[in-house]
Design a protein that fits this description.
The complex is a heterodimer of chains A (163) and B (578). Chain A has helices at 15-25, 54-66, 95-107, 128-137, and strands spanning 2-10, 32-37, 43-51, 70-75, 81-92, 111-116, 119-126, 143-148, 152-155. By secondary structure, chain A is an alpha+beta fold. In chain A, the strands form two sheets. In chain A, strands 5, 6, 7, 8 and 9 form a five-stranded antiparallel β-sheet that branches. In chain A, strands 2-3-1-4 form a four-stranded antiparallel β-sheet, covered by helices on one side. Chain A starts with a strand and ends in an 8-residue tail after the last strand. Chain B has 578 residues and is of the alpha/beta class. Chain B has 20 helices and 22 strands. In chain B, the strands form five sheets. In chain B, strands 3-2-4-5-7-6 form a six-stranded parallel β-sheet, sandwiched between helices. In chain B, strands 11-10-9-12-13-14 form a six-stranded parallel β-sheet, sandwiched between helices. In chain B, strand 21 and strand 22 form a beta hairpin. Chain B is globular and about 75 Å long. Classes of the chains: A alpha+beta (163), B alpha/beta (578). The interface between A and B is medium-sized, with 21 and 18 residues. The complex binds flavin-adenine dinucleotide, thiamine diphosphate and magnesium ion (MG). Residues 91-92, 152, 213-215, 218-219, 239-242, 256-261, 279-281, 283, 285-286, 302-305, 308, 322-323, 394, 398, 417-418, 420, 479 of chain B line the site of flavin-adenine dinucleotide (FAD).
């Protein structure tokens, strides 16, 4: 099962490598990992997407909690939550295809954030599946590069992950 | 008070109550060694190899319960310490390792003797720190001790760049009395509801067993465990790491469990209906084949580390907390409860256990004209009246020491269980002897293991730590040979060394007494003579039966009920007992 684990961790050098090291040492897989400081600069927020049986996910969360730098974590998959991923896609354009790409981007609520005579950069956020769908809708030969942040997530309702 | 970084390190150790630093100097720690030179509150023990420093500090920690302290230089000093750090980590031993590092400005430039110590040790420490600011040095050291000694203990590395200890830079010093770390709050007491459920289950058990481990020793809960077991009247088995946590000569003790555990302990586990695991971590040497592990049992598990619970074996009632308060909480409920364990059921259970005991799985050939290693350990037990601190290396000799020296007290049996580090025994014995100079300390070792840290014989002379080295010399890596006999049709690939040094001469060269014993009747007098030499380190090179194997044995991939037992004493064939 896919799980999205959200971690509040000390914003210290080495904290990220402790998490990454834990996953490689114990043979857990990481599908994606995003990290950035929070509104409290002493803390970072990490979002980690992983897959595993319930037993493995239980061990993953226990082992993460055991890291001294980890302050708190939740498995977002346990409750109602929202996931978003940021994507930027650089696409080759021609006179003929520009209109089509613009309208496709609009359908997916993306925006065009860079324009050259021969390219567009489309920015888009949403659940990963939406981004996948956009890419699938574009002619593969026209894609120059795609950059994705990996999903981040937040739980719905009043509860939140904080100190 | 204003101190420089080097002085801060030493003063912090002093304020922490540290007696001994086990270390070895080098460029990156020269400021620190200069500070050590100018004081004599904290005694420095100069080892001969950094691995020896870590094992000696580890032995000291296991025997005393206090954290061991190590000081090594950067680069090769730091890497040499890694095996000992990992050894302590696997057995949850509190240790603080201070490693020198190249000066901060050159970190990352492949400077002379630079290694990324924080990176290298990350997977084998409880935590580690790189000190970046001399004003944070004392607090960091305090945090290191706090993390190392609380919760599930473990080693903590403090990596100190050379510029941080610069004697010219002085800053105000105050050693914090207490520190807290917001992200680290280990559990102490257990959840009341869970404890209640556990007690209810225990009181209805028909075939219960207490499976206790190293956590009872680490958590100083031997007294509580003993009281708990006596109150309930249940059988107790211990892991290799738990030996001594419950008195081995007590009639409720059924011996060690697991791969080389007793027949009665493993059969009782297999047939039990309720198991309470106390500070034990269901290691694979204990469980054998997981699918066949304790098929009838509901399991209660007390452990301070939630990650130890349901890691390999799913348990019914997890209790996260320190063994000591949790057992106290349980005892109180048991005493208050109107329900008592069923006398009838326990009587039947004990009758069954006595039948398993009657198999006498630890019997061996006492008539042999060769020295049996088991006999040596039995004699060691008698000569030391069961009161010695016994360290060991890794191999067959380790298992025999565990099986034939019944430890009645915690912290007397000192061995590397989780990592199984050959070379551990001798330096560990030195650490123990420093802590308890008036007690007998024996190092049970093998002809291969002893050569892995033999250089520490020199340390033993310098610091006058008269330990007795009991070398069960079978001219084989016996444990490896045994596996090759069982699983590789006796193809003894590289488990035999063509040349073994003359240990007597070697001991003498290091300034100690050496004795060679090759007849059974010489064993007892030699041991007596050795232990009578109170102020000498004695190396007893005892030539034992080379073909002897460790029994019982659960071969890999088998369950507890599927043990290989020794047949008639003297024969080397074995049979399966279902
Ligand atoms: C050659 C060889 C053969 C071996 N054969 C066997 C064998 O036959 N049988 C055997 O048992 N072992 C054997 N071992 C040892 C084995 O590898 C493990 O080291 C051992 O079984 C682990 O013991 P333990 O479960 O008591 O855990 P430990 O490693 O001692 O861990 C202690 C547990 O208690 C917890 N804990 C710590 N402090 C506290 C506290 N205060 N309160 C609550 N919980 C706490 C920890 O979180 C941990 O889960 C062998 C080793 C070697 C090298
Ligand atoms: C550092 C290290 N290397 C290798 C091993 C694997 N190993 C386990 S037991 C053993 C043989 C030990 O031989 P010896 O010390 O003579 O003890 P014996 O089994 O003969 O009693 C070996 C090589 C180990 N445990 N540690
Ligand atoms: Mg040997």
């Amino acid at each position: 099962m896919r799980h999205i684990i959200s971690i509040l961790i000390e914003n210290e050098s080495g904290a990220l490598s402790r998490v990454a090291g834990l996953f490689s040492a114990r043979g857990y897989n990481i599908e994606s990992l995003t990290v950035a400081p929070t509104e409290d600069p002493s803390l970072s927020r990490m979002t980690l997407v992983t897959r595993g049986s319930d037993d493995i996910i239980e061990q993953i969360t226990k082992q993460l909690n055991k890291l001294i730098d980890v302050v708190k974590l939740i498995d977002l998959a346990d409750s109602d939550h929202i996931e978003r991923e940021l994507m930027m896609a650089k696409i080759k354009t021609t006179e003929q295809t520009r209109e089509e790409i613009r309208s496709l981007a609009a359908i997916f609520r993306g925006s065009i954030i860079d324009v050259t005579p021969t390219t567009y950069v489309v920015e888009m956020t949403g659940p990963s599946s939406k981004l996948d769908a956009f890419i699938a809708a574009i002619d593969g030969d026209t894609i120059i590069e795609v950059v994705r942040s990996g999903p981040t997530g937040i739980s719905r309702g009043e509860k939140g992950l904080h100190l | 008070m204003e101190l420089n970084g080097a002085q801060i390190v030493i003063q912090s150790l002093k304020d922490e109550g540290v007696e001994f630093i086990f270390g070895y100097p080098g460029g990156a720690v020269l400021h620190l060694y200069d500070a050590i030179f100018q004081q004599d509150d904290v005694k420095h023990i100069l080892v001969r190899h950094e691995q020896g420093a870590t094992h000696a500090a580890d032995g000291y920690a296991r025997a005393t319960g206090k954290p061991g302290v190590v000081l090594v230089t950067s680069g090769p000093g730091a890497t040499n310490a890694v095996t000992g750090i990992a050894t302590a980590y696997m057995d949850s031993i509190p240790m603080v390792i201070i490693s020198g590092q190249v000066p901060s400005p050159v970190i990352g430039s492949d400077a002379f003797q630079e290694v990324d110590m924080v990176g290298i040790t990350r997977p084998c420490v409880k935590h580690n720190f790189l000190v970046k600011d001399v004003t944070k040095l004392a607090e960091t050291i305090k945090k290191a001790f706090y993390v190392a000694t609380t919760g599930r203990p473990g080693p903590v590395v403090v990596d100190v760049p050379k510029d941080i200890t610069d004697p010219r830079i002085k800053v105000p010093y105050k050693y914090p009395k207490k520190v807290s770390i917001r992200s680290y709050n280990p559990a102490v007491t257990g959840h009341k509801g869970q404890i209640k459920k556990a007690v209810d289950l225990l009181l209805t058990a028909q075939k219960p067993i207490i499976y206790s481990g190293g956590g009872v020793i680490l958590g100083e809960a031997s007294k509580e465990l003993t009281e708990f077991a006596h109150t309930l009247g249940f059988p107790v088995t211990n892991t290799l790491m738990g030996l001594g946590a419950y008195p081995s000569t007590d009639k409720q003790f059924v011996g060690m469990l697991g791969m080389h555990g007793t027949y009665e302990a493993n059969m009782a586990m297999h047939e039990s209906d309720v198991i309470i695991a106390i500070g034990a971590r269901f290691d694979d040497r204990v469980t054998g084949k997981l699918d066949e592990f304790c098929p009838h049992a509901q399991i209660i598990h007390i452990d301070v580390d939630p990650a130890s619970i349901s890691k390999t074996v799913k348990v019914a009632i997890p209790i996260v907390g320190q063994v000591k308060p949790v057992l106290e909480q349980m005892l109180e409920l048991i005493r208050e409860s109107k329900k008592k364990p069923s006398k009838k059921a326990l009587e039947n259970w004990w009758n069954q256990i006595d039948q398993w005991r009657a198999v006498k799985c630890l019997e061996y050939d006492r008539e042999s004209r060769l020295i049996k290693p088991q006999y040596v350990i039995e004699q060691l037990y008698e000569v030391t009246k069961g009161e010695a601190y016994v360290t060991s290396d890794v191999g067959q000799h380790q298992m025999w020491a565990a099986q034939y020296y019944p430890f009645d007290k915690p912290r007397r049996w000192i061995n590397s269980g989780g990592l199984g580090t050959m070379g551990f025994g001798l330096p560990a014995a030195i650490g123990v002897k420093l802590a308890f100079p008036d007690s007998d300390v024996a190092c049970v070792t093998g002809d291969a293991s002893i050569q892995m840290c033999i250089q520490e014989l020199s340390t033993a002379l310098q610091y006058k730590t008269p330990v007795k080295i009991i070398n069960l010399n079978n001219s084989y890596m016996g444990m490896v040979r045994q596996w090759q006999e069982f699983s590789y049709e006796s193809r003894y690939s590289h488990s035999y060394m063509d040349t073994i040094p003359e240990f007597v001469k070697l001991a003498e060269a290091y300034g100690h007494v050496g004795m060679r014993i090759d007849k059974p009747e010489e064993v007892r007098p030699a041991l007596e003579e050795a232990f009578a030499m109170k102020d000498r380190t004695v190396f007893l090179d005892i030539l034992t039966d080379r073909t002897e194997n460790v029994y019982p044995m659960i071969e890999s991939g088998k369950g507890h009920h599927d043990m290989t037992l020794r047949v008639a004493p003297g024969t080397s064939t074995d049979r399966e007992l279902a």
